[in-house]
Amino acid sequence: LRILYCDAHICVVNKPSGVLSVPGHRRNPSNNDITSSIDNIDQSVVHRLDMATSGIIVYALTKEALSKLHITFRDRVVKKTYHALVEGHLLLPPPPDEDENKIDVDMERDPNNPPYMRIAQPRTKNNKDTTTTRRINHKFLREAPKPSKTTWSILSYEYRDGKPVTRLEMRPHTGRTHQLRVHASQVLGTPIVGDDIYGSGGKNGSYTLCLHAQRLCIHHPISGAAMIFEADAPF
Question: Which family does it belong to (predicted)?
Answer without folding.
Answer: Belongs to the pseudouridine synthase RluA family.
